[in-house]
Design brief:
alpha+beta, 11% strand, DNA-binding
Length: 271
DNA sequence: TACCAGGCAACTT
DNA sequence: AAGTTGCATGGT
């Protein structure tokens, strides 16, 4: 199919997902208990589902129905650094990911680096997810459900390389098994959602904003990490004390996408 | 060798 | 309310 404003190489390193695996051509992508093989040649996108689910689920995951041209035109021209970032990362989108998966993944992300986050998520899935497909000689596993994680002890999380975050993961899974249903949070308004997320140990302001944005698809969410902070202070002339409120006024709606452009730009510029 | 990585909870003032 | 500190682990 034909697509615009979508680039799989950019999405693979965009930092919103840690389950895109490079294969001989394109990527093997896992989300929840589904897998697909995705390839791209210019504007030509090819998706092959490797599991039973409906292909429409992948279209939704990739946010294909949204008009990125229109959104981009609203963001463009506000700031020269953002303009450059948008030109650099034209194929960046917001993926529609699973809330529970984002809670676990971004708990692991706190004060951590991209490689180790990816490795830890991989170990967690390999160890406790279900085998869902083989591809080019490798096995791929679903993201483990709370039931898959039922019997784990703190040390089992530690063995996945998550470090001191082990106890947060353990406690969250225990609470979820006890009835805490993060899927029910979809019904909450923004403020209640953020409050509910931050009640979970291991989730502070930044991780809550990541989960809110990537897992609950609240597109104005604007996570401020160490890198974004530098960008706002250095290129948007924001004072330290105004960081938290900045995005609300500067990006009334699509702050999340703007944040992704800035983050991706930073990631590629570093090299 | 220190310092950093998509920060957070617990503690001190 | 606001500021400080310890934290697992792998990379540079």
């Amino acid at each position: 199919m034909k697509v615009s404003y979508l680039n799989i190489d950019q999405l693979a390193v965009s930092g919103q997902t840690f389950r895109w695996y490079s294969v001989s051509e394109g990527y093997l992508v896992v989300h929840k208990d589904q897998a697909m093989h995705i390839r791209q040649d210019g504007s030509d996108l090819d998706i092959k589902a490797l599991t039973e689910g409906p292909i429409e689920a992948w279209h939704d995951y990739l946010d294909l129905q949204r008009d990125y041209k229109a959104i981009r035109s609203r963001l463009y021209g506000k700031n020269t650094y953002l303009d450059a970032a948008m030109t650099c990362g034209q194929g960046i989108r917001l993926l529609n990911q699973d809330a529970y998966e984002m809670v676990i993944t971004f708990m692991i992300s706190a004060n951590n680096n991209m490689k180790r986050i990816k490795d830890s998520v991989f170990k967690l899935c390999q160890g406790y997810g279900k085998l869902i497909c083989h591809f080019e000689g490798k096995d791929y596993y679903s993201f483990p459900s709370i039931y898959d994680l039922r019997a784990l002890e703190i040390k089992d999380y530690r063995a996945c390389g998550v470090g001191y975050r082990d106890k947060y993961l353990y406690e969250f899974v225990q609470e979820a098994l006890g009835g805490l249903d993060v899927d029910a949070f979809h019904a909450y308004d923004d403020e209640d959602l953020k409050t509910a997320l931050m009640k979970i140990k291991g989730i502070g302001e930044k991780v809550a904003n990541c989960v809110l944005l990537f897992g609950y698809h609240r597109r104005h969410g604007f996570p401020i990490d160490t890198w974004i902070k530098k960008v706002l202070v250095g290129h948007f002339n924001v004072q330290e004390k105004d960081l938290k409120d900045f995005s609300k006024t500067f990006f009334p709606e699509e702050g999340g996408l703007a944040q992704q452009y800035l983050f991706y730009y930073g990631a590629v510029e570093k090299k």
